[in-house]
Amino acid sequence: MGDSLDLFAAFTEEAPENGSEGQHPQAPRVQELHRQLHHHAHCYYVLDAPEIPDAEYDRLFRELQALEAAHPELLSSDSPTQRVGGAPLDAFASVRHRVPMLSIRTETDTESSGAQAFDARVRRELGLAADAPAVEYVAELKFDGLAMSLRYEQGVLVQAATRGDGETGEDVTANIRTVGQIPLRLPEGVPPVLEVRGEVYMRRDDFERLNERQRDRIAAGEKNEKTFVNPRNAAAGAVRQLDSRIAAQRPLSFFAYGVGEVLWDGQASQPPWASHMELLQTLKKWSFPVAEHASIAVGATELIAFHERVAVLRDNLPFDIDGVVYKVNRLALQQQLGFVTREPRWAVAHKFPAQEMLTTVLGIDVQVGRTGKLTPVAKLAPVFVGGVTVTNATLHNEDEARRKDVRVGDTVIVRRAGDVIPEVVGVLAEKRPDGAQPFTMPHVCPVCGSVALREDGEADYRCTGGLFCAAQRKQAVLHFAQRRAMDIEGLGDKLVDQLIELYFCKFSCPLDTHRKYGRLTGYGGFLASVSDKKIITKLRLNKNKRKEKFKPQLIPMGLANLYQLEAMHLLELDRMADKSAQNLLDALEKSKTTTLPRFLFGLGIRHVGEATAKDLARHFGKLDAIIQASEEQLLQVNDVGPVVAHSIRTFFDQAHNVEVVEQLRACGVHWPEGEPVQPTAMPLAGQTFVLTGTLPTLSREQAKALLEAAGAKVAGSVSKKTSYVVAGAEAGSKLDKAQELGIPILDETGLQALLAALQTP
Ligand code: IVH
Question: pTM, whole model, 2 decimals?
Answer without folding.
Answer: 0.60
